[in-house]
Amino acid sequence: MRKKIVVLTGAGISAESGIPTFRDADGLWEGHDVMEVATPQGWAKNPELVLKFYNQRRKAASQVEPNDGHRALVELEREFDVVVVTQNIDNLHEKAGSSNIVHLHGSIFQSRSSVEESLVYDMDGWELKLGDLCEKGSQLRPNVVWFGEMVPMMEVAQRETAQADLFMVVGTSLQVYPAAGLLYEVSAGVPIYIIDPSIPEYNPQPNITAIAEPASTGVPKLAKQLLDFS
Ligand code: NAD
Questions:
Q1: How far apart are the CA of 1 and the centre of ligand 1, in A?
Q2: What burial class does residue 183 get, using C-beta atoms within 10 Å of its C-beta: 0-12 exposed, 13-18 middle, 19+ buried?
Q3: pLDDT over 90 for what percent of the chain?
Q4: What is the pTM of this model?
Q5: Reading across the β-sheet that carries 192-195, which strands appear in turn?
Q6: Ligand 1 centroid from CA 26, angstroms
Q7: How remote is the C-alpha of 157 from its chain's centroid?
Q8: Closest CA to 15 of 71, 75, 64, 82
């Protein structure tokens, strides 16, 4: 049976494609306080600002390409059953060709009803405006999980993580929960690799190997080793 590799990715894997990460030194996301643009409270207070913020993110994300980090995860599918659990709301894993992707925090390329979570729509263009309504007549919002909201895909991610024969963490500060908690749901003894140029803090475990490299070189090197020894 093919071994299962589960990969938790964060903003860092898309950094070299030209999408800035979330936690810059000033603690802002592209110059904005996250409370203003990525919380239900921010949405209630100023939906126009929130829509504008995500419109800019969507426009920028649609103009970039995956990098060798995303691509190496696709290569691994030759020999392994690979599940990518991503915190990213961009579509670079899809563009690279990964076939099994769990979007923990949703996707900016989808909109959804602001009253009924299950009404989700693929977007055609890059712009969502005030007055764009769902079929029930309520304002559309980006289909992303904001701080303080439930993470509906968490159960799927936990199930996959518990079944992993190898777990990788790429480009995440491990500060956003519950996603970061997946690291501690890996079965005992399963090897874990963390790839990040500045390794985030984690509870030390003997099965964790930290690789202080950017995703575009660190992931292909590890993928090659795994493929060579499979
Ligand atoms: P984060 O910004 O908190 O952490 C980014 C991590 O990436 C850091 O540990 C940093 O050292 C690392 N990093 C920087 N450059 C790297 C590189 N070249 N290769 C590998 N790692 C690199 O990101 P997070 O932990 O994903 O949490 C941010 C939240 O914000 C997520 O929930 C996500 O939904 C959202 N977000 C998404 C995107 C995106 O979709 N691309 C971008 C920004 C923020």
A1: 33
A2: buried
A3: 90
A4: 0.96
A5: 101-103, 81-86, 4-9, 166-170, 192-195, 208-211
A6: 14
A7: 12
A8: 64
Which residue among 9, 21, 105 has the greatest number of ligand 1 atoms within 8 angstroms of its CB, and so is best to mutate? 21
| C-alpha to C-alpha distance for 87 and 146, rounded to whole angstroms | 11
Distance 131 CA to ligand 1 centre (A): 32
Domain ranges (residues) in the chain? 1-19+66-105+150-230, 20-63+116-144
Q: Residues 70, 93, 103, 105: which is the catalytic one?
A: 105
Residues β-bridged to residue 32: 29
pLDDT of residue 167: 98
Q: Percentage of the chain with pLDDT > 70?
A: 97
Q: Running DSSP on this structure, what letter comes out for residue 172?
A: -
Specify whether 103 is catalytic.
no
Which fold does the domain 1-19+66-105+150-230 belong to in CATH?
Rossmann fold (3.40.50)
Q: Give the right CATH number for 20-63+116-144 from 3.40.50.970, 2.30.40.10, 3.90.650.10, 3.30.1600.10.
A: 3.30.1600.10
Helix or strand or coil: residue 64? Answer: coil
Task: Quick: pLDDT tens for 185-209.
Answer: 999 999 999 999 999 999 888 899 9
* Residue ID of nearest Cα to ligand 1 atom 2: 22
